Amino acid sequence: MESTQEIVVKEVLPVYNLNAEQEKKEIVRHYRALMRSLRPKLKKGDRELVRQAFEMAAEAHKTMRRKSGEPYILHPIAVAMICVEEIGLGVRSTICALLHDTVEDTDLTLEDVEQEFGNEITKIVDGLTKISSVMDTNTSQQAENFKKILLTLTDDPRVILIKLADRLHNMRTLEHMKREKQLKIASETVWVYAPLAHRMGLYNIKTELEDLSMKYMEPENYKEIARKLSETKRERTRYINEFIRPLKEKIEAAGFQFEIYGRPKSIHSIWNKIKKKGVAFEEVYDLFAIRVILDSPQEKEKEHCWKVYSLITDEYTPSPERMRDWLSNPKNNGYEALHTTVMGPQGKWVEVQIRSKRMNEIAEKGLAAHFKYKEGTNLEDRFDKWFGQIREVLGSQDTDGVDFLQDFKTSFLAEEIYVYTPKGEVKMLPTGSTALDFAFSIHSAIGSKCIGAKVHHKLVPLSHKLRSGDQIEIITSNKQKPTEDWLKFVVTAKAKTKIKDALREEKRKIADEGKYILQRKMENMGAAYNTHNIEELVQFYKVPSALDLHYHIATKLIDLRELKEATLYGDRIELPKPKPQQPEPVADAGGIKNSSKKDSELIIFGESSDKIMYQLAKCCHPIPGDDVFGFVSTGKGMIIHRTACPNAPQLMANYGHRVVKTKWVKNKEISFLTGLRIIGLDDVGVVNKITNVISGDLRINISGLSIESREGMFEGTIKVFVHDKEELDELVNRLKSLQGIEKVDRLDTESVT
Fold first, then answer.
1. 71, 70, 52, 53: which is closest to 62 by C-alpha?
2. I need a surface site. Which of 147, 267, 409, 424 has the fewest CB within 10 A?
3. Long-range contacts of 41-46 (CB under 8 A, 24+ apart)
4. What is the β-pairing status of strands 614-616 and 637-642?
5. If 0-12 CB within 10 Å is exposed, 13-18 middle and 19+ buried, where does residue 655 land?
6. Residues with catalytic roles
7. How confident is the model at residue 190 (pLDDT cuts 50, 70, 90)?
């Protein structure tokens, strides 16, 4: 068999490559490693099928190379390897992974794949081909493509699992891409793919995708945390060993078979803690988690996990607020575990996760492991229910691409809460759900007629945000109808879709009145109510559709007296045409270019800034030296954002075609407004010390200063004009060195203005 493979590989390698023999050996080595990993799952005839897929892919990609210069075939082999080793998929998925780029990038067609491998594999390859173009087009097309993915996902979840493997390998090899491509791919990854991996139960892949995204989007912060983790590794290992020792003795004495070890938290999650809690790296207490993995029979798992929890909390005091019981209520993606945070030696809080080997495999391999263990459990119901909810929303979803992605994220990729009906039935909803979301989750008719709710027998408004453990009773009225305001506080896609449907139906009824008014008006004029005349009116009044035209007439937003300007040609009307709008320009260093240009030019700020029309984003206030990108907005021209801006992932993932690469050039003539938040001990003369450093030592202009003191501490906000990031960094370091100053942070929000 191996000799056959070698012949095939020799045939498909490009003849122009000087290291052809070496590359051939490298490809065969990777392929053999894949076959070794797949060996336990191979049945009769499978080996030949996989080899056939490999040969087809190698032949199809024979002239192609990746940005790194390596033969392209190494990418599908690597994706297949991730599917087998890290996700736990089998032979069919391996074949699909090997072929996943062939239909899109080569002369191979879906018909060729179907002829060789049949309908099941063809459908998955087709789904993977559709996904590839999702984020690269305009938003309306993006919505349709994303719907296609999700329809395929609900039909066969392997599509999304293989796509996640493909994305993971692309992220692992992203250093060979151009900077703007890195930012776009990293943004998409953190915006859609990492949450999707989390939702499919692939926690390790989700974590790695987030870390790799951060590596490219916020390289400085990533390197800083990685460096500090590396520096504290020995100290952490010593502490983990000290923490584990007494637990190991107790659990062994109780007769359990188990593993116990410490695992560092991801760089991305540490960074989120630093930002959310406003603390320094040294103050993040849970830099690692302790895992206890029990080798228990399935019927004894819960009992054993609780016994081990009891042994741990006998040794260390638990924090009641940090207890998470996912044994009694597993997550929708099948995740089961007990999480607790306890006070360890030296007064440090430590997170401990307790689960069985089966639970651990589901936590690491997600959906693939779930199918392995589904017999005798209700996990399948949870996944099927989730897929069913997606199908229901897709059936009537007609919003634009960005709204669709946003609704999908908040409804299906968010963390969940568990709430109860008055009869005690459990309902799972995304975090942030309101009483109205709960009403729609029970039934569309109940949601539409909802006028209020009772949470634990206490009356609450429709917008009341629910928490895990709430028991809710819905109050309805036959006179109630959905209103536009409801869309402002519901988060589930089902609620949003049903409200929009009801509003649309209501709009149609009102529009019928407007249609009647228009028909009579046109009859009086001697004009016909026909398609040509309606299109004329739609253009003249600048409304999106005939429905909007009729609706605006009924609600008196359109005054038909303007029809006096119409000219009649028989029964056809002609109206003055509105002036055509100019296409929105894209600014660049050489002046103004049309937005249809495929590759936007490099923007240079500073010396040539007088040639560029741009404004700085108020959400992140970039200054020279920051890593930035240009965003062509509708109506506001070019807006410059920091790549670390809270809105950057959404903008780059959803509107990649509007993002323009940018670079600063030093120009000490221009000053930029930015802000700092300072926290410290409230001491006499503290303001004087701060202003002396800013105005006296560094000669930086202060735009505004506010200080509030309370109980011996002060918090101040200072707005200053600096020339670049270098100057700001020097200011921050000087302020931090002052006695009594605890913390100095840059303001990233609109509070700067």
1. 71
2. 424
3. 41/84, 41/90, 41/91, 42/91, 43/91, 46/91
4. parallel
5. buried
6. 104-105
7. confident
The sheet carrying 741-746 orders its strands as 701-710, 713-722, 672-681, 741-746
CA 404 to chain centre: 13
| Model pLDDT, residue 140 | 40
C-alpha to C-alpha distance for 287 and 274, rounded to whole angstroms: 11
One-letter amino acid of 223: K
Contact 518, 563 (CB under 8 A): no
Phi, psi of 644 (to 5 degrees): -90, 5
Q: In one letter, which amino acid is 351?
A: E
The pLDDT of 83-95, averaged and rounded, is 88
CA distance 734 to 694: 9
The tokens for 224 are 């800083």
The 8 Å CB, 24+ separation contacts for 84-88 are: 84/34, 84/37, 84/38, 84/41, 85/37, 86/165, 86/168, 86/204, 86/205, 86/365, 87/161, 87/164, 87/165, 87/202, 87/205, 87/365, 87/366, 87/368, 88/361, 88/365, 88/368, 88/369, 88/372
Q: 24 is written with which tokens?
A: 């051939």
Q: Which residue has the higher pLDDT, 596 or 663?
A: 663
Q: Find residue 475's DSSP bridge partners.
A: 452
What would the pLDDT profile of 342-377 be if each residue is shown by its tens digit? 998 888 888 999 999 988 888 877 766 655 555 444
Backbone torsion region of residue 730, taken as left when φ is above 0, otherwise alpha when ψ lies between -120 and 50, otherwise beta: alpha
- Which of 211-215, 411-415, 646-650 bottoms out in mean pLDDT, i.e. has the lowest? 411-415
pLDDT digits (tens, 9 = 90+) for 263-303: 888 888 888 888 777 777 777 766 788 999 999 998 899 99
